[in-house]
Amino acid sequence: xxxxxxxxxxxxxxxxxxxxxxxxxxxxxxxxxxxxxxxxxxxxxxxxxxxxxxxxxxxxxxxxxxxxxxxxxxxxxxxxxxxxxxxxxxxxxxxxxxxxxxxxxxxxxxxxxxxxxxxxxxxxxxxxxxxxxxxxxxxxxxxxxxxxxxxxxxxxxxxxxxxxxxxxxxxxxxxxxxxxxxxxxxxxxxxxxxxxxxxxxxxxxxxxxxxxxxxxxxxxxxxxxxxxxxxxxxxxxxxxxxxxxxxxxxxxxxxxxxxxxxxxxxxxxxxxxxxxxxxxxxxxxxxxxxxxxxxxxxxxxxxx
Length: 304
Hints:
This protein has helices spanning 16-31, 35-50, 54-59, 67-81, 86-90, 114-123, 140-148, 161-173, 235-244, 263-272; strands at residues 92-95, 98-101, 129-134, 152-158, 179-183, 197-202, 248-257, 275-282, 288-295. It is α/β, with parallel strands linked by helices. Strands 5-4-3-6-7-9-8 form a seven-stranded mixed beta sheet, sandwiched between helices.
């Protein structure tokens, strides 16, 4: 790390390139990560501190930094070296082309969840419809879907009050007026009673509490309640599948994100509870990640 120095002069401080090189080397050692990952972390953190883009950093690599920027940047690098996720340090995360505010009350949106959004969009062929996102967290899935289907009414729920407030804040910042956010433990809210949806989406907790991955990486800092489920990670998946049959319209779809080893059982559960055309999509790493099925009905679904 680069100390600011008691006698440092703001206009003659270390250059952007120098600061990034030292930060990259420090993170590589502290986190035992590849140089490319360390460089990305350092660049994202410095860009956030300066309120500039990463491309701006490349263009102005020889520009001296002021001590008032070096000190807080070093503090962020120290916290990152302790394992704190970059998204929590900068306060936002990019997802499906959207910039979303994040907090430690929610999971950090991940690129693998984008395949859930992509499949939902592929199924939402009507210009109008109703979608429900359960356990919305930052609102990432609901807002990404809503941004591409402005004619749809999207309901985003979470049982954590802070998460609901954050999702609503993100919806407002993105001017997505077709999204409403409400507090609900899965389908429990009175506001959902007697409602049915063309699409129900969820990225619920699905990690076994004994999984060693909980002690590694970013998940150490994320809320366990949003990660861990009983019954070896299947409890919430099963609850949603069981209860969803009362809330999905005949011919509508249920789409669930799950662990990379859970696809086969989730497919069996969907079929057991009357879903048809059950299938699974793989994530960017080629792992089974999203399983979906259509509600069993003799009627043709008409989206309204």
